[in-house]
Amino acid sequence: MATAASEAALDASWNAVVAAFARRTVPPTPPRFDASALGVVRSAGAAELLVELCTEQVRSDIAERLVPAFWQKFEWARAGGAARSPRRAQCAFFAAVHDIVGELSAHAAALLALEGQLLGGSGAREGARVPQLLLHAHSLLLVRVPPGLDYTLLAVTFWDQSFRDHCAHLARHRPRRAPARAAEPCERDSDGEESESEGEEEEEGGDGEEAAVMDAPGASGDGLRALLTPAHVSSVEAFAFARASGASAHAADGVPMEVEDEGGSGRDGRRSELELRLAAFSLCCAQLARVRWTAFVEEPLQLLLCARLRAHIHTTCSAQFGRRQLERVLGWLSRQLLPWLDAISAAADARVGVGWAGAPLPPPRRPAPPSVWAVRLTQFVHETFGSLRSAELFDIVCDFPDSRAALLDLALCLRHTHQHAQLAASLRAALENRLLRPGVATAQVLQLYIQTIQALHLLDPTGLLLQRVSAPVCDYLQRRTDTVHQIVKSIIDNAAAPELGAPLLADGDGADSDADGSAGGGGRAAAPLDAALRWRPLAADADIAGSAAARARGDVLSMLVSIYGSREVFVSEYRAMLADKILGPAGARAFDADHERKNIESLKVRFGEAALQQCEVMLRDLTESRRVGRVLGEAAAPREGTLDGAFNVTVLSRSCWPALPDDEGLAIHPTVERSLSRFERLYAHHKSPRKLVWKRSLGAVKLDLEIGGVTVCDVVCTPAQATILLHFADEGRWALRQLAEKMGVDATALRRKMSHWLSRGYLVEVEGAAEATFEVAAHLGGGGQELAQAHDDDDGGGDAAGSAADALEREKETGVLTAFISNMLTNLGALPLSRIHTMLKMFLSGTRKYDQSEAQLDALLMRLVEEDKLEFAAGKFSLKAAQT
Amino acid sequence: MAPPGLKVTVKRWSAVASWTWTADDDVCGICHMALDGCAPGAAGPGDDSPVVWGKCAHNFHLLCISTWLQSKTSCPICRRNWEFAPSAPPPSATLAEDG
Ligand SMILES: [Zn+2]
Ligand SMILES: [Zn+2]
């Protein structure tokens, strides 16, 4: 009986306690348990069991009611709805968190009270149940995300909207400065369209407008008051009120929550939309922290922060090489993002909050402190910025030295991220894909290589980076036949300007710091290659890295020269160029010796006095020849059948000239031969003990010719070609073999020389002759008065002619392509490379078939950009700012 | 035969030749460089590297033989006593022969 009675008592007590436990309220009021009922349960030894049972009840309540209710609030957001109405997502997120945390804290409060009163400090697991429950609820939430709902997107949207609110708040409370040009660049949040400051009028309206839109409650039906239930709104308002009145106690709060008039809250007691939203956000953060759910949202938060930073970096910095950008980004981080994180952190610390009074929950798990975020995000900025600039490095190099700022930024990033290998690989690839192509002129390759050297020196004074990048370029330049020619040409093309004659290869210090051409900036257009050649690293920089700096200390020219192993090739190239000029079609008479003397002087400075000695002899030969020509011309009496005044001779010092042809066999026309031998005898007489050896194939002839009453004036050709014409003037028709015999050359060679005249229509092949026979054309074709600029296409140069023709063909093709592209861009605005590529493939077919690879197209487009025909920004090509 | 239909007027004829010494040897027997080239240490060929004839008909750069004669008195080729010839042998052709 006693057992039955006590059993009944226990039952009654048990039920009383369970009922009391179940009578939770939201907001929670600690449940009142009947002390005697507790005593009965405790004395029956069922205390632990009862607590377990109640815990189990809570557990099932979480699983069956709270979690479904949580996700129920996002029913509308499935299948991308969250992205479509971010405001609604923000409010739903807030409401869902608010409700579930309210319920959970009621459970927790009840459970803690039960534990405390029933177990009285004796329970083995007392105090552990609540955190376990919270964790359980958390995992359950994540496991039960409804299919079709992108939770991450939802959470990111929540953070993103809150961040916008934060920015709007900052904008509103930023002290208005009268002049737009403020010490600190004013930046706006939002969709990356930060004003490009400096000199640009800051749009005062921008932020205010956005804030105004956000502030208009329900204007577009997405005001907080419209989207939340009145209970939620009043909860938020109470929270905001509590914070405002207790503001002094929470001064650490990152968002300065001024109680001052904000949208008229002071007067009518209604808080502005923005203010409400900020309060809702803080409350939400506090709640999340209170139930230790920060991890629940921290990953989306990090996602958002990174996305925000990445977007900010890409929109404000990409292709902007002219100014330092990194610092601005870090400034943005610390002015916009970090205060927000501070606010989140501070909210998590907040002890005020409706529904929290007296709930003795375990201390909140704080989100990662702002300092951790700051470090993490700063590193992220460095990485993202570094990657962006690494990917853009080729363009940066193209812009050098205007892109110095970008390089300094990148150097700073590298110090944090050590992305050197990645950077070297990507630049190397870009150089190979975009620079080392047949369509790019050697001078351009050189120019860019020099800029690469200079740019990489800024990034890495040790020169190791350059070493990794330069090999393919050097190999390529070495394979290009005209590299040496281009280098020498650029040196002497600029030799006329005396200020460019600064020493380059002078050993020792680089103390003449003005040699750092890059420092001045902007001088690139004025004196392209030569100015670049004069560049050398600053000695101070070079000293940093000890022995490795030796590599970097050399100037650009010696680096280029090192491609070839010696400076001799450059001097002999110049010698060849000089020889061509003196002996070329214009002839020695037109040769400007003074100009060339200046060239030699400037080359001497670079390659040393001794190396240029031969070239000086070449010039001396020329002046001496002129002198001798004058003397001998006076000595010789005019004579019939010779050329007399039209005749001049250049006498070369054999050993100082490039290899001269051995053309003993060639016989010039007898009229001229007479002049030659006359001159030869006079020379031998006057210059004894010297004598002449004729180089009959060298030299140039200018003549007028008349065919069928049509005169062609000033035809320039080689002596051999002139001889052919002279023979045809004597006899109108020649068998090839006969003429070859007469001229002392073989028939094949003669035919080649004759092709010069055949192609012009002066001579024609006789049809149906027994052997190859040619005769003077009966009359000249349509282009009779053409002023033929004849070039010697028979000796050497076959290759050059071929490649020139190829290049011409290519140019024609490119022209069509260019026209088409510019049409397309006129109609369609800016397009990315891939779009252009696809469109070309689509539209160019048939005879004008488009068969270039995307990389080739890229190279072409970049060339057009370089030629200022196109613009490239944010990954898209467009026509150069509508030339109005 | 039809009269030739082509008439050519030469307005300018720039011919090219190289000069050399009227010597039998091509190279200097002392420095083994071309006689019409540059003697070691000379600024250039020609007047800067004059060539001399010995009575033995051997020729050298003036610079080279002068250095040689500081220690020796014989021709470095034929070992005969070195004596300067007054001038080069006269050129094979004279002006008078001209037509
Ligand atoms: Zn010698
Ligand atoms: Zn001798």
TrEMBL record, chain A:
Q: Which SMART domains match?
A: APC2, CULLIN
Q: Origin, by domain of life? A: Eukaryota
Sequence ranges assigned to domain Cullin family profile in this UniProt record: 529-758
A GO cellular component term found in this entry reads: anaphase-promoting complex
What residue spans carry the Acidic residues bias annotation? 190-212
Q: Name one GO molecular function term.
A: ubiquitin protein ligase binding
Q: Where is this region: Disordered?
A: 173-216, 785-805
Q: Which UniProt keywords apply?
A: Cell cycle, Cell division, Mitosis, Ubl conjugation pathway
Q: Which Pfam families match?
A: ANAPC2 (PF08672), Cullin_AB (PF26557), TPR_ANAPC2 (PF25773)
A GO BP entry is: cell division
Q: Which InterPro entries match?
A: ANAPC2, ANAPC2_C, Cullin-like_AB, Cullin_homology, Cullin_homology_sf, TPR_ANAPC2, WH-like_DNA-bd_sf, WH_DNA-bd_sf
Similarity annotation:
Belongs to the cullin family.
Under what name is this protein listed?
Answer: Anaphase-promoting complex subunit 2
The organism named in the record is Diacronema lutheri
From TrEMBL, chain B:
**Pfam families, per the entry:** zf-ANAPC11 (PF12861)
Q: Which CDD domains match?
A: RING-H2_APC11 (cd16456)
Which UniProt key words apply to this protein? Cell cycle, Cell division, Metal-binding, Mitosis, Ubl conjugation pathway, Zinc, Zinc-finger
Domain RING-type as annotated: residue spans: 28-79
One MF term in the entry's GO annotations: zinc ion binding
Would you say which domain of life the source belongs to?
Eukaryota
Biological process (GO), any one: cell division
A GO cellular component term found in this entry reads: anaphase-promoting complex
Write the protein's name: Anaphase-promoting complex subunit 11
Q: Which organism is it from?
A: Diacronema lutheri
